[in-house]
Design goal:
By secondary structure, the chain is of the alpha/beta class. It folds into two domains: about 140 residues, 3-Layer(aba) Sandwich (Rossmann fold), CATH 3.40.50; about 130 residues, Rossmann fold. Helices cover about 45% and strands about 15% of the residues. The chain has ten helices and ten strands. Strands 3-2-1-4-5-10-9-6-7-8 form a ten-stranded mixed beta sheet, sandwiched between helices. Strand 9, helix 10 and strand 10 form a beta-alpha-beta unit. It is elongated.
């Protein structure tokens, strides 16, 4: 008889910032929706702080740093527990860098959630780089949540938006987007963004001008074909299809301004599986204005 494994948790990277607190509260709602535990992980590389002792830092400085980390975790657990009394909330303070800790934990998580800004105050650059590393190397989907603890974010009535292409990852993104839209009672906006390179347009201007409408029709037919099967599986989800002549990043950003969630695959055409993160998803990690969910074709969940 095979043992019954515990449910995979939603994992949140915590660092004491308002952005991480906001992400943890978003993750709590997601964990409750999935009926799984919430795991709060504070990764603290104490070796960096230990080096500061050579500059006159008090001997008990490391203990103060660890105690502050535990305080952050305890207060966040209590706050989430008060809002979600039935949710199991686990906490851990680990002595290591955030990226290897979160990548390792992603193997047993169903989702990793990060805030968009950390305590470093670099407007998302540091947390963005962590999200990029996780989306490229992690073993489960990654969500990046915009805003701080007091930021309500986009209107809750907004749609789920998904980027659609012809890759296996695009299919996984569609599956995740329909699931999210269905469970949230939201509409779905399926965006297929395409743009012929400017060099090709200039070289064959007459041909592209003549065939532009036909090309857009083909893109729309491809989008319809991609969405059709999922619409049959999720008939309760109202779908709006958008074919954009812009590059994917611009097309997705323009159509997700009021979205409650944007879903993309981690690489589209030309990606190197497991090595590099696709340019579209990487750009959206830094620039999306709503919560972003990045999935990969190799994600087990």
């Amino acid at each position: 008889m095979r043992p019954i494994l515990p449910p995979s948790p939603v994992l949140v990277g915590v660092d004491g910032s308002a952005s991480a607190e906001h992400a943890a509260k978003w993750a709590a709602v997601e964990a409750e929706r999935r009926k799984v535990p919430l795991r709060l992980l504070f990764a603290l590389n104490l070796a960096i702080y230990a080096q500061a002792r050579g500059f006159g830092v008090p001997r008990d400085f490391l203990e103060v740093i660890k105690a502050d980390g535990h305080r952050v975790l305890d207060e966040l657990r209590d706050s989430i527990g008060g809002a979600h009394p039935a949710l199991v909330v686990e906490t851990e303070l680990r002595d290591c860098d955030a990226v290897p800790a979160l990548v390792g934990e992603s193997a047993t998580a169903c989702l990793v959630v990060l805030g968009s800004r950390g305590l470093g105050g670099f407007s998302g650059i540091l947390v963005g780089s962590t999200a990029v590393a996780l989306a490229a190397r992690g073993r489960c989907p990654v969500a990046v949540i915009r805003g701080g603890a007091d930021d309500a974010g986009p209107a809750p009535a907004g749609p789920v938006v998904v980027g659609v292409d012809d890759t296996p990852t695009g299919e996984v993104a569609l599956a995740a987007a329909f699931d999210q839209a269905s469970s949230r009672g939201a509409d779905l906006v399926a965006v297929r963004a395409w743009q012929v390179s400017s060099i090709a347009v200039h070289a064959h201007a007459h041909q592209y001008t003549k065939d532009w409408s036909a090309m857009e029709d083909r893109e729309r037919e491809s989008l319809d074909a991609r969405v059709a099967g999922w619409s049959e599986k999720y008939p309760e989800v109202a779908v709006r299809r958008v074919v954009s002549r812009h590059r994917p990043v611009r097309g997705l950003l323009e159509n997700s301004v009021d979205a409650r969630l944007l879903v993309v695959g981690s690489r589209g055409h030309g990606g190197v599986a497991g090595v590099l993160l696709g340019s579209t998803s990487q750009a959206l990690i830094y620039h999306a204005t709503c919560p972003l969910l990045v999935v990969r074709a190799t994600d087990p969940r």
